[in-house]
Automatic annotation (TrEMBL):
<feature type="domain" description="SLH">
    <location>
        <begin position="24"/>
        <end position="87"/>
    </location>
</feature>
<dbReference type="InterPro" id="IPR051465">
    <property type="entry name" value="Cell_Envelope_Struct_Comp"/>
</dbReference>
<dbReference type="InterPro" id="IPR001119">
    <property type="entry name" value="SLH_dom"/>
</dbReference>
<dbReference type="Pfam" id="PF00395">
    <property type="entry name" value="SLH"/>
</dbReference>
<feature type="domain" description="SLH">
    <location>
        <begin position="143"/>
        <end position="206"/>
    </location>
</feature>
<feature type="signal peptide">
    <location>
        <begin position="1"/>
        <end position="24"/>
    </location>
</feature>
<protein>
    <submittedName>
        <fullName>S-layer protein</fullName>
    </submittedName>
</protein>
<keyword id="KW-0732">Signal</keyword>
<feature type="domain" description="SLH">
    <location>
        <begin position="88"/>
        <end position="142"/>
    </location>
</feature>
């Protein structure tokens, strides 16, 4: 039996910025509200990524099998789960997770063992888990990790460095990572939840709060306040589309008079027609920057337009992106979607600064 715990009690106190009081948090009989990963487990359950056992338990301390790990990642990425041949001798098409395993192979998230074996029932280690997540999600390059039990020649060294820098994984007391110990179901849920939803990482939750404040300043047309989030050296770049983004860059000082500037700029080219976009900043604000209704977010959320973020990461490989998405209307079958993407990078002092605002939309 699953237990419904009111957010008005423990849940609001623990993570009020993430879940709303109107919701209830669904926990399993063996995952109490004070479990260190209760909210990560609840989030993945809410998203349909994890399941429990028929007796209503989650068994958080049980190890995770390779097949279950791939299934959870597959659900998180909306991979094709159609049962089919996997190419592995020990995973026939009739195997329960053959579709996810085949898709994960196609996406180069997993590889097998010699002689075409996958070993689906083997447990996954911390190092193997980090490697799969590193292949499944985008993480910027990072400085080498300093865990005492990780050597550069270890197959997961770079992946551990990236995910530790991002905040997805942490070490143990004594600065060890323990790469070869099995991952429990609760630990795997925590890793996957942080990779999928950065708001579970305190630093990234704070950045999301900053982005919401910037959105409010944009809606108020207060570019003097927007400028306070911009670095002094690089300024702020605006692009109407993520693909082929060159855009226009305004210095911190120029931003203060953004809406009153009479100058016309060439912001880019209309996607589809190729015509130049020549507009004053105020016209660009109306036609592109704030042309849709965007609302503040409690979560980063899973993007509906992954290609947009791929294009942005090609331009800004070290960036953290906060996407605000307008889903479009039923009248146009959601083809009139738009997005506003705030692009942040850390400056030399280690602080996040806003470096670009990149819009995107469907074009024909």
């Amino acid at each position: 039996m699953k237990t419904i715990v009111s957010l008005i009690a423990a849940a609001i106190l623990m993570f009020s910025a993430f879940l709303t009081p109107a919701k209830a948090i669904v926990l399993f009989d063996d995952v109490y509200a004070d479990h260190p990963f209760a909210f990560e487990i609840a989030y993945l359950y809410e998203e349909g990524i994890i399941n429990g056992y028929p007796d209503g338990t989650f068994r958080p301390d049980n190890p995770v099998t390779r097949a279950h790990a791939v299934a959870m990642i597959g659900r998180a990425l909306n991979l094709d789960d159609t049962a089919r041949s996997t190419g592995f001798r020990d995973v026939p098409a009739k195997y329960p997770f053959s579709g996810y395993i085949a898709s994960a192979v196609e996406k180069e998230i997993i590889i097998g063992f010699p002689n075409n074996y996958f070993r689906p029932e083997w447990t996954v280690t911390r190092a193997q888990t980090v490697t799969m997540l590193d292949r499944a999600f985008y993480f910027p390059e990072a400085k080498d990790n300093t865990f005492k039990d990780m050597r550069k020649k270890h197959f997961a060294f770079d992946a551990v460095s990236r995910l530790a820098e991002f905040g997805v994984v942490r070490g143990y007391p004594g600065n060890t990572f323990r790469p070869d110990i099995p991952v429990t179901r609760a630990q795997f849920a925590a890793f996957l939840a942080r990779a999928l939803e950065p708001a579970f990482i305190p630093e990234k939750q704070k950045l999301l709060s900053t982005a919401n404040k910037i959105l409010a300043e944009l809606q108020a047309e207060d570019f003097a306040d927007v400028a306070t989030y911009v670095g002094s050296s690089d300024g702020l770049t605006f692009c109407p589309y993520s693909g082929g983004c060159e855009g226009v860059t305004f210095s911190k000082a120029q931003l203060t008079s953004f809406m009153s500037s009479p100058d016309s700029y060439m912001w880019g080219y209309q996607d589809g027609s190729g015509f130049e976009i020549n507009l004053t900043p105020a016209e660009y604000y109306d036609d592109y920057l704030m042309n849709a209704t965007y609302t503040k977010k409690e979560r980063y959320g899973r993007t509906s337009q992954p290609m947009t973020q791929e294009f942005i990461h090609q331009l800004y490989p070290d960036a953290m992106i906060v996407e605000y998405y307008y889903p479009g209307t039923e009248q146009y079958s959601q083809m009139d979607w738009q997005s506003l993407n705030m692009v942040f990078e850390k400056n030399s002092s280690g602080n996040w600064v806003l470096i670009a605002i990149i819009n995107d939309r469907w074009t024909i």
